[in-house]
């Protein structure tokens, strides 16, 4: 067996782990919004906090295996460079935006345990975790498309634009629905 195929397996496995983490986060965020009591809200927010290790380990493994394959087999082609930039975006967005919002939510829950469920739900909607995860998922799928099809630079940029648009459209529509939920509550 060639060493390259072991690296390829690890690369694909780390991408799968990253998407499994996103799927668990999605379920956690939906369950957090549907939680009936503070205990459920607290439990689901802990699930979201625990995903950090999955994202970090799969992200690092994805980078290392991808860099190895790029340097030994593919070279630094436009689709690899664009994929790396998208990976960098996902890492920064996950750690800075999404990670910060999850930490903020945990801190809010810990310091406001006496708040009513309605007040906690208002804050959960305000934090907009699921909206940010949706944009990450769109960029992640765009990255998988680029790595599968391997387009030249213009094609890769077009995929990035489509992925961003698909990630932003739901953000805009969810913003209106979240605001209306806040006003009704």
What is the makeup of the main sheet?
A: none
Radius of gyration of CA atoms, rounded to a whole number: 19 Å
Task: Provide a count of the helices.
Answer: 7
Low-confidence stretches: none
Number of domains: 1
Give the CA-CA distance, first to last residue.
60 Å
Please bin the fraction of helical residues: over 70%
Percentage of residues in DSSP E strands: under 5%
- What is the element string, with H for helices and E for strands? HHHHHHH
Class of secondary structure makeup: mainly alpha
The beta-strand count equals 0
Please tell me what the overall shape is: elongated
Mean pLDDT: 84
Please give a structural write-up.
The chain contains seven helices and no strands. The protein has one domain. The mean pLDDT is 84. The protein is elongated, with a radius of gyration of 19 Å. The termini are far apart. Helix 1 packs antiparallel against helix 3, helix 2 runs antiparallel to helix 4 and helix 3 runs antiparallel to helix 4. By secondary structure, it is mostly helical.
Topology overview:
Blueprint (H helix, E strand, L loop, with lengths): L2 H32 L3 H13 L1 H23 L3 H34 L5 H11 L1 H21 L3 H32 L1
Task: Briefly characterize the structure.
The protein has helices at residues 3-34, 38-50, 52-74, 78-111, 117-127, 129-149, 153-184. It is mostly helical.
Please describe the structure with a list of short key phrases separated by commas or semicolons.
185 residues, mainly alpha, 90% helix, 0% strand, elongated
């Amino acid at each position: 067996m060639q060493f390259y195929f072991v690296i390829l397996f690890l690369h694909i496995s780390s991408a799968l782990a990253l998407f499994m983490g996103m799927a668990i986060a999605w379920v956690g965020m939906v369950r957090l919004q549907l939680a009936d009591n503070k205990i459920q809200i607290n439990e689901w927010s802990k699930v979201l906090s625990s995903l950090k290790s999955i994202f970090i380990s799969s992200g690092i493994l994805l980078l290392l295996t991808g860099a190895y394959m790029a340097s030994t087999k593919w070279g630094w082609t436009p689709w690899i460079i664009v994929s790396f930039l998208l990976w960098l975006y996902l890492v920064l967005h996950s750690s800075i935006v999404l990670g910060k919002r999850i930490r903020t939510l945990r801190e809010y829950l810990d310091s406001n345990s006496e708040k009513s469920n309605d007040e906690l739900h208002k804050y959960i909607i305000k934090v907009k975790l699921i909206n940010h995860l949706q944009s990450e998922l769109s960029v992640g799928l765009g990255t998988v498309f680029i790595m599968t099809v391997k387009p030249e630079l213009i094609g890769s940029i077009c995929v990035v634009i489509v992925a961003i648009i698909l990630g932003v459209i739901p953000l805009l529509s969810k913003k209106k629905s979240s605001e209306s939920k806040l006003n009704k509550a």
